[in-house]
Amino acid sequence: MEKLKYALFTGCTAKQSTPEQMMSTMAVANKLGIELVELTEASCCGASHLQDYDDFLSLVLNARNIAYAEKHGLTMVTICNTCQLNTAMTKHRLDNNEELKAKVNEKLAEVGLEYKGTSPVTHFLYAIIDDFGLDKLKEMVVTPLSQFNIAPFYGCHNIRPSELQNETHKSAENPYNPTSLDDLIIACGGMNVDYDEKNKCCGFHAELQSPHTAAALTGNAIAGAMDNNADWMVTPCPLCHLKLDTQADHASEAIGREVELPVLHMQQMVGLALGCTPAELGLKHHVTKVDFV
Amino acid sequence: MSTEHKITTQNVNFKVFRFNADEDYLPYYEDYNMEVTSEEVVLDILNRIKWDHDGSFSYRRSCRHGICGACAIKVNGRSTLACKESMNDMIDLFGNELTIEPLSKKRAIKDMIIDKADFWDKHAAVQPYLVAEIDEAPTSENLVSPEEENALDDADLCIQCGACHYACPAVEHNEDFFGPAAFAAAYRFSADVRDHSETRLADVNEEKQGVWDCVKCFECAEACPKEINPIGKITKLHQMAFQEGIAKNNVAVRHAVGFKKSIVKNGVLDEGGLVLYSEGPAIVKHIPVALKMFSKGKIVPPWGITKSENLDEIKKLVKSSSTAKF
Ligand code: SF4
Ligand code: SF4
Ligand code: SF4
Ligand code: FES
Fold it and tell me: Strand, helix or coil at A265?
């Protein structure tokens, strides 16, 4: 197989509040022999909020990010569900509306860029599943996670709206019964935990304006995983991670019950199975202690 | 191409939610095993349970044409209009073990029938009608152009089935939150050129019940059988608030605006700066979590942020492409 190569849109979180996600992404890519070219010119995607204020500006900025991936002639890979949604949504709208695309390109031309629509946009989770392949990953596992019950937490913006997601990923996902992350857990040798909240919302995006709703959703998710005997949780989204990892106290308060579980980024889980060290995976950067390694 | 259409049969096990608020202390599930033909819709199964197994089984249906909105229920957690949903599609999606439940278990009155009072109250609260001065003796027609009609973005196709409302986690945890269907209705009328309501847009922007508490989960978009995409309408209501200059200076509004401030400065987000700008003095409540994060190396100070390369491009684009003011 030819070496896989992508343009990496890190998003902001991996460079700030989840440094462990950046570290583990690079460590895993290295082990798998995937080349990631970081889009250092990229701006924030707007995190599903900017468009509430200024939709056109959000489109232009996201189109600019994709234009840089196009310049490299590479598929863009994201490591944040919300970055994925914003970027893929921009791509969908521009690719299906010539007039809008022309308007956006008029602006991009001012800085010598053009959005063409030539680079697909996919999340690293799906790059591993669709392009690298789980069979191949399985063969590379040196430390199977067989003693762990692992609860997958999918994160809204990788599975909904399904119409957009299924046009973006090769492997179609049923938002009411997603399987990609379960499959990844199994490929790493772990036991996948089934629970009601695995495809539900963590509440991240309303944390400031609606703290009770946000905390209750986080609490329900952790409680669901705990009640089904999970040893830890795993997520492809750094924003879900922040919520589940750093907000256990608020979450417990909101649902009136002590809840807490270690939460790993999916890159960290894969990294453990591939024999990366805890230091390489940044396990010390978690607020909820990762005490099982 | 052959037009021959083969009817096939499959064996399906149904786990059906049963509850009678007058008699039962707790709900329970009843199993029904049936041969299901490829021609059937979910409503046919409900009918067969009632006609062949238990005459007391209760559900709502009326039009049988996907237009009255009465028959919305959940199959394996997915909202569906029973009269339109093909059984074959359900089996393709979920296999031969199907769980049939009402839209909201906690609001169940009898089996599939739920108390939809909160849905209707919230619908009524957004002025779901045109607010207009009607000239009682008009001399010409009140014309609406196709473009103006397009602006409704299909929000007028809502059949009030409640599927989105009862799929919405914000509705579950904030009893004041109007919910996706009410917002879609609010948008439908606020986007109508003939409408002159002076209160609707402000009401749906209030902190307690308004659009800002949406957690952006897209459950509503997924649930809607009419593909109305309620969260898309919520986004438009946000934008309208800025266009009309009624967006209040509160944490939610500053949070949305704050992204632009951060982007123009760094290209990337300044996470701490965004929370500070959004919360103002209320930032103190985040200190305990912030300290924990800091001790784990999760907080980058403003001077430590790696700005986007070619930041001048971003600044230029923000200047030339901004369309909203706050
Ligand atoms: S969603 Fe988060 S991480 Fe992704 S670009 Fe945006 S703010 Fe940055
Ligand atoms: S996107 Fe918003 S309105 Fe829609 S279901 Fe989620 S929280 Fe409710
Ligand atoms: S928006 Fe869609 S799901 Fe919600 S009530 Fe209307 S038709 Fe039903
Ligand atoms: S019976 Fe009217 S919508 Fe199904």
Answer: strand
